[in-house]
Design a protein that fits this description.
RNA_pol_Rpb7-like_N_sf; S1 motif domain-containing protein; mainly beta; 7-stranded mixed β-sheet; transcription; OB fold (Dihydrolipoamide Acetyltransferase, E2P); Dna Ligase, domain 1; DNA-directed RNA polymerase; 2 domains
Length: 212
């Protein structure tokens, strides 16, 4: 099952966006009666983190240690369990077509350049492949070295639920495409907020049996 984007599906802005967007999600969480108490909020956050952090969900890759509960509903008792609707913030990575991202080249082969986006904590939410065929007439492409920071324009993305990173197909971009006024570097500047609640997005997590 492939995911879909919850952001804009295409962008032509010549900006380097941050690898993550702050997002607002809604998730149904079930706790046992024994988990209900003064530490209810902490138990809800732990359950959410275990379900979604460090992996891909429908909305994209969720950064580890980034979930924070905004509010949650009164519990609905179901036998020995209690169901809660939880609204929480988290950092989501999901590059879209046309977006400019910075990454580091890892290996260079006859087929193309394999690169990675590495965040400030060392997590790799995105792997990038730049096909030589997409840059056959680009002199700069042949001058790229391993472990060099490069600028890539996203052509397409692919990932499945629970993947540990997003795969991006991209094309080598050039710094001259940017202007000083519209640069947004990987780890700097204010990043736009993505509010999925406005689209009535409800995140339903699949159990291990459902995924099969």
């Amino acid at each position: 099952m492939y995911s879909y984007t919850t952001m804009q599906k295409h962008t032509t802005d010549n900006k380097i966006y941050g690898v993550y967007l702050k997002s607002l999600l809604n998730l149904k969480i079930t706790l046992s009666i024994t988990e209900i108490g003064n530490n209810l909020k902490q138990n809800l956050e732990k359950k959410i983190a275990a379900k979604i952090e460090g992996k891909c969900i429908v909305q994209g890759f969720i950064k580890p240690n980034s979930t924070h509960i905004v509010n949650y509903s009164s519990g609905n008792v179901n036998s020995a369990f209690v169901d809660f609707q939880v609204v929480f913030e988290c950092m989501v990575c999901h590059p879209v077509e046309g977006m400019l991202i910075e990454c580091k080249s890892k290996t260079i082969t006859k087929a193309g350049i394999h690169a990675e986006v590495v965040d400030e904590t060392g997590i790799v939410p995105v792997t990038v492949f730049i096909a030589r065929d997409h840059n056959y007439n680009d002199v700069t492409f042949n001058n790229v070295k391993e472990n060099e920071t490069i600028l890539v324009r996203v052509i397409g993305t692919r990932f499945e639920l629970n993947d540990s990173y997003i795969c991006v197909i991209g094309k080598l971009a050039h710094r001259r495409e940017l202007t000083t006024s519209n640069k947004k570097y990987l780890d700097g500047g204010e990043k736009p907020r993505l509010n999925l609640m406005e689209e009535n997005v409800t995140l339903e997590m699949l159990s291990s049996d459902d995924e099969k």
